[in-house]
Amino acid sequence: MIRIGLFIPCYIDQLYPQVGMATVDVLERFGVQVEFPAEQTCCGQPMANTGLTESTRPLAERFLDIFRPYPYVVCPSGSCTSMVRYHYDEYLDGKDDFAELKAKTFELTEFLVDVLKVESIGGAFPHKVGLHQSCHGLRELRLASSSEMNVDPFNKAGSLLRTIEGLELTQLKRPDECCGFGGTFAVAEEAVSCMMGQDRIHDHEEAGTEVLTANDMSCLMHLDGLIRRQKKPIRVMHIAEILAQASHSRESGTGSLNERAHD
Amino acid sequence: MDHPTAAAKFVANDTRAHWHDKALWFVREKRDRMAHGLPEWEILRETAAAIKSHTITHLADLLEQFEENATKLGATVHWARDGAEHNEIVHGLLRDHGVKKVVKSKSMLTEECHLNPFLERHGMEITDTDLGEWLVQLRQEAPSHIVLPAIHISKEEVGELFHDVLGTEAGNSDPQYLAEAARHALRQRFVEADAGLTGVNFAIAETGGIVVCTNEGNADLGTSLPKLHIASMGIEKIIPQAAHLGVFLRLLARSATGQPITTYSSHFHGPRPGGELHIVLVDNGRSDLIGSDEFRRSLSCIRCGACMNTCPVYRRSGGHSYGTTVPGPIGSILAPAQDAKAHHSLPFACSLCGSCTDVCPVKIDLHHQLLTWRKLIAVRGLVPLSKRLSMRLATAVFKRPWLFNLGGSIARWVTPKLPRFLIYNPLNAWGRQRELPEFPKESFRQAWEKRRSSSGGDGKDTSS
Question: What is the mean pLDDT of residues B92-110?
């Protein structure tokens, strides 16, 4: 049995517990032994992206100590995974087990596709789903091919969602434009951030998206904030929630949207 | 004005902001079709990046080689340390030749050096002959984009401008009609000019030749009629060999406007018979960047503007919101190198989406360089105190899991009980247009702990 240390981003821990539980659920359904080291808090990305190196360093050091014992680290966020894999070097370079940490830390769908070699989620989720390509997952982790580059098209999250019965992926005019969250950017550049979010939502509305999903809950928190303010009929779900509900429906034989994978 | 303030003003005009966004996205899509139509696109980018990397690390030798070969061809090469020296050199040449009227094709370097106002102060009449550049010159403003300088101006506004300046029909904003009027007026300026100024897209060390790319042919006309041609270039425009030109010309037009090649790629090998060619090599801070491990690669830039067209922030905030000659992602790297204090908000005018890095034809890691600038701006104490203190507080909390849990529990308990007006107060920038998340009763770790301690369900105790 593969044993993993579950890395739950701080805001998912405090604001979106159901996303964390859905992540556990999906991993366990594929036979993974999930452990959650309770000492973890935040990877330090907000500080790093503000340029505050010395505020980031102690959090990076803690992270390495906490996740050192696990064969794999899995996280339901492309952005936080990218922080560990590509942006910890200046804090941890040369430290014992750091190279291993970078190599063993995976975003959830990446772990399912690349490590567990999951080919099908199965089950049903009979809805029109709009997949938002969160930028750090897309252009740092390369979870999918980006529209700018001339490479063979691939999409790890999309390939999993396509195996779910009844799930229809909507076709967007701008398949991978940023939603405008961007961490502190969402507040510091509030006007541009919200316009970017509105434009993404509009694209999804025109494409007929019923459920808007992504690998990163932070993008969805921003988009959901706009959607709820304007009372638009789009529901936001993290990809782990869809994967959990679909694989749950495989056992119970239902795929209702309102049903929780976990109570 | 910092970027967020200027950007908010631009966004406030929703119709214009969306029109601007769509106009540039159209160019980005044209570029995509071109990039995806070439199977060797990614190899071209790799090759261009490698050539530029070699060039920047051998720049001193290549510049001297260029000077030697350009001189052999009969051109005169001048060296300018900064914008002021550049302007003095150009003015000196014009003065010595008794020049009163100058035509200039598009040159971002002369914009960077603020050449136009300098020459005008010395009583010279200078006309920008690139149509977009001429429009912004007539409106007495700066270009808002390096390839599409007037992308922020609507055709209706051009109609009004031409009515005032050229006496075209009031209310006529037909592009064909306006272009004809501009062409007619500019022809007269070309005929009367005593000197032609151009920029340089590529200077070839091996041959001493220079290449200027335009879509309007204005560089050719401006250097064919007057006898004096002055070409101004940043020192990073050098490429080692003529053979390398094929790589860059293929990338430049496709990246810039989605054309397979610019309409005119004009090669100048020394002066034309009876004429004079002066080439001014300008440093203006570039050699400082060569010395910087973090930002050296920004000198690979070929000024195609693709990073602007793809940038979701640029498209929605307009080029003028950056307050720099070169706006957008590359401008936000170059400007703080000149003056970090004045431009401290630019590296933060970015959601770190990385689209600029993927679109860049010479593979500059733009969004990573912007992130590096944020660190340097923080080191120089230019990050606002409120941000610094809040992040320091957050780190103090995150270092102590018990405090993190306690703080989270209190916030989740208190926030839903607060009246709406207290939460959505004027200081809450998040809540101006967005709802806050619905605060759940328990955190993930509480839910996890509960599941672990209960023996029922499928909650296997797997914690070590």
Answer: 96
